[in-house]
Structures are given as structure tokens and as C-alpha cells.
Amino acid sequence: MAHLTEEQLQVTLLDGKPLEAEAAEHLAHCPRCQQEQQRLATLLQELDIARASQPSPENLASYYRLFEQVEQPESASWLDKLVQAVSLVLQWDSRQEAPALGLRQAGPVNYRLLFSADQADVELLVEPLGRTRRLEGDVLPLDPEGVPGPILVELWPRPEAVKEGVQTPPREHMTTSDPTGRFRFEHVPPGLYSMLLTPVNGPLMSIDRLEIV
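Above: the chain sequence. Below: its structure as C-alpha cells.
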């Protein structure tokens, strides 16, 4: 049998329609078609993230009211800024300490996360709040003269989290830090998110994958 076409693979990814038996059997044993399917899946996910990362006109208007000194970019799109964002990398997760100490955890508990980049550290505290969570953050610039607030902080659900059909689906959250870089989100449903931090001056920073449990 010939290799599957891009159209056949797209139908399964976009519409969820199963392949015909012969095509499914071919895909199960063909590394080339499996690689192409993964490439298309990754592309579609990136497009979903790009669409989710485009702020609404209301959010942009709110942002520009908060920061009148920030000029609306004439050439660089929001996606351009996202691509150029500084990635914050997970350095520490307090949940990893409990198993190492032989501690058992029943139900949701408070935990802390530390993400780092050359420009700043971002500390996060996640606390249970009924079925949702409270998320407190602190942006700590490594250069005393860099990054401090106010900072626009956005929490965007990742596409794979939205498609899981959880009881309380993740949704967009937006807030502004105080002048010292501290911020808070209330009633955040557990899920998988990306976080974008936009200071008045300096590069946009991002946490690509943030799991709230």
C-alpha cells in the first residue's frame, strides 16, 4: 500500500475520524507515516497555541490603559513577540521533596515552583481553593535595575488541556503585578497552561508548560 496522504492524516487529527482498516494497519507499521502524522500534530498544536496567544482587543485596550508609555507595535505582531520571548525553565518543584523524605500526601496540597532565565527568576506558590487553585507569583530580577513591575501576566490554557474535556476546563486569566513584581490569580482550574509575562521595558518572558494540579 502507498504511504498515507497528508489529507488522510489531517482528517484523523482535525475531525477525529478513524482511518479505514487498511490505512490504519499501514500507519501502525510505517515509521514514515507515523513521523508525518507527528509532524502534522505538532504543527496543529503550535497553530492552536498561536491563536490562543493572540490577546483579545479588550485585553490589549486594558493593557495600554495601564501602560500609557508603551507604544502599540507597528510591525511586530504578538506572535512575533512570543517567538522572541525569553523561556523560563523549571529549576525546583517542592513536590519532589515529599517522596524523597518518605512523606505521603493525601489530596491537593500547597506547592512551590521556581522558574529561571538570565533576566529573572519567577517563584510560584500554588494553593488549593476548593476545586480551583490560588496562584501567587513573584518576579525576581537578577539585575536590580531590570524587569521590575508593573508586569502584565497572562495565563493561557494549552490546547491539549482544553481538548481533554475536564469538568472545569482551563480558561484564560490576566492580571498585572504590583511595582515589585508580585501578582496573584484566584480560582484557577487545575490544568495545563502557558504563562506570558510582559514588562513595560525588556523582553517578554514565557513559561511554555505550567501544570496546575
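Residues 57-212 form one domain.
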